[in-house]
Amino acid sequence: MNIVFRLLLCAALAACASCAPLSTADRTPGQAAAHEPAPLLLISIDAYRHDYIDRGLSPNLELLAKQGVQAASMQPSFPSLTFPNHYTLVTGLRPDHHGIVDNTMFDPRLGRFSIGNRQAVSDGRWWDEATPIWVTADAHGLRTATMFWPGSEAAIHGHHPDYWRPFDDSVNADQRVDQVLAWLDLPAAERPRFLTLYFDAVDHAGHKYGPDSPQLDAALRATDAALGRLLQGLRQRGLFQRINLIVVSDHGMAAVPAGNTVLLDDLLPLDQVQLVSEGIVAGFNPRSHSAGDLANFAAIEQKLEQPQQHMRCWDKRRIPARLAYGSNPRVPQLVCLANVHWRIASRALLAAKKGPLSLGNHGYDNADPLMQAIFIAHGPAFRVGAKVPAFPNVDVYPLMTHLLDIPAAANDGDYDAVKGMLKPASQ
Predict the structure, then answer these.
(1) What is the pLDDT of residue 22?
(2) Quick one: pLDDT at residue 34?
(3) 204's torsion region: left (phi>0), alpha (psi -120 to 50) or beta?
(4) Residue 24 among the catalytic residues
(5) pLDDT at 31 (0 to 100)
(6) What CA–CA distance (Å, rounded) separates 253 from 237?
(7) Cβ atoms within 10 A of the Cβ of 57, count?
């Protein structure tokens, strides 16, 4: 029986209180029945600092905040970098526990990892110290889809999301939105229940031009327009009031003047250490385990752990406990953290860099106000017009497993800390 005929029949039968719901075969693609569980879409706007929304350049995001839940801010995990925090959001584990301890790492068994190394990024062995939410969801019969989420390119514990795409920065924001909508248009049996969406223009503009630049403001407008495209697509599908949306960022952004560089060459003999990472977080290991190299490294540590003008350095065993960092074997033996508005670099890195230095950066102390992220949620599960206090990003994971009604893997989050943003079960 086609849809038109059924509607005419319903209108004619005055004694009928309501018509039966359309069958799955009668519904258009993406048009879910009211009784079907609500999908969950996790959206990341990379480096959207918690106060950017106050600039008045994100009307669609403001709408979601007004009609849903907005946190004062969300604290990233340390280090406040992209890959560690994106993996924290989908595992509920701090980087020290899930193993993605930096954007650049060294593992004696696996070698070097960097976010631009496609072979490493797609190797599940880097990621398998944790279980991301899409693996658990799949194991419990829920289909999943990720649009450029760190970790989704790897087969973690042997599993990818049901739908995923290798990262390609030539795919613009509108195309990313259209892909998510296309996944939601799939027939019910194939449609994902958990999805992610990733935007990175705000991060790129913040790095290249700084967080107070007109280019950053333009990126805020463009990203919000893409978000508006998503919301309109959801409305057209009758999903806007039926889908749970969680919009987050991984960290904030701080201005870094071009001249604010701590030169490593002036502080230690780089040829006597293994340089693991530099930037905002610099990491060093002994060059080898020979007695001579270990003695040299101990002397370097002793020098750098003394007060420095624009950075702080610690042996990994002495990193402050509040940073929850240092127990993972991938954390370098010596860690140096730049003060906000400064960077750490070798002359070799500066010489190899093409173009000007980044005028904005992140990775700093995760308690710094400039590193704080956003959290906004909207949908049938969430209260309307609610303002909630700041909370750590590890709590997003148990919130999501609750929304999907799946068991949470072991994690560092606290569902009780965020359950107050949900409507009472009776509503």
Answers:
(1) 28
(2) 54
(3) alpha
(4) no
(5) 53
(6) 35
(7) 18
User: Does 397 share its domain with 331?
Assistant: no
Give 386's contacts (C-beta < 8 A, 6+ positions apart).
68, 69, 70, 421
Rounded distance between C-alpha atoms, residue 217 and residue 219, angstroms? 5
Q: Which of 82, 136, 146, 401 is catalytic?
A: 82
**Which pLDDT value is given to residue 8?**
31
What string of H, E and C letters represents the secondary structure of the chain?
Answer: CCHHHHHHHHHHCCCCCCCCCCCCCCCCCCCCCCCCCCCEEEEEECCCCCCHHHHCCCHHHHHHHHHCEEECCEECCCCCCHHHHHHHHHHCCCHHHHCCCCCEEEECCCEEEECCCHHHHCCHHHCCCCCCHHHHHHHCCCCEEEECCCCCCCCECCECCCEECCCCCCCCHHHHHHHHHHHHCCCCCCCCCEEEEEECHHHHHHHHHCCCCHHHHHHHHHHHHHHHHHHHHHHHCCCCCCCEEEEECCCCCEECCCCCEEEHHHCCCHHHEEEEECECEEEEEECCCCHHHHHHHHHHHHHHCCCCCCEEEEEHHHCCHHHCCCCCCCCCCEEEEECCCCEEECHHHHHHCCCCCCCEECCCCCCCHHHCECEEEECCCECCCEEECCEEHHHHHHHHHHHHCCCCCCCCCCHHHCHHHECCCCC
Q: Report helix angle 214-236 to 201-209, nearest 10.
A: 180
Whether residues 140 and 222 fall in one domain: yes
Nearest-angstrom CA–CA distance, 323 and 180: 35
* pLDDT reported for residue 57: 98
- Give the pLDDT score at 204: 98
Q: What is the pLDDT of residue 355?
A: 87
Low-confidence ranges of the chain (pLDDT < 70): 1-35, 426-427
Tokens 């070798």 belong to residue: 346
Domain holding 372, by residue range, is 40-252+367-421
Q: At what angle do helices 214-236 and 59-67 cross, to 10 degrees?
A: 60
Query: Which domain-ending residue is among 312, 331, 357?
Result: 357
Amino acid of residue 266 = D
The enclosing domain of 276 has a CATH number of 3.30.1360.180
What are the residues whose beta carbons fall under 8 Å from the beta carbon of 65, sequence distance 6 or more? 53, 376
Residue 34 in domain:
no
pLDDT for residue 85: 98
Contact (Cβ atoms closer than 8 angstroms) between residue 197 and residue 178 = no
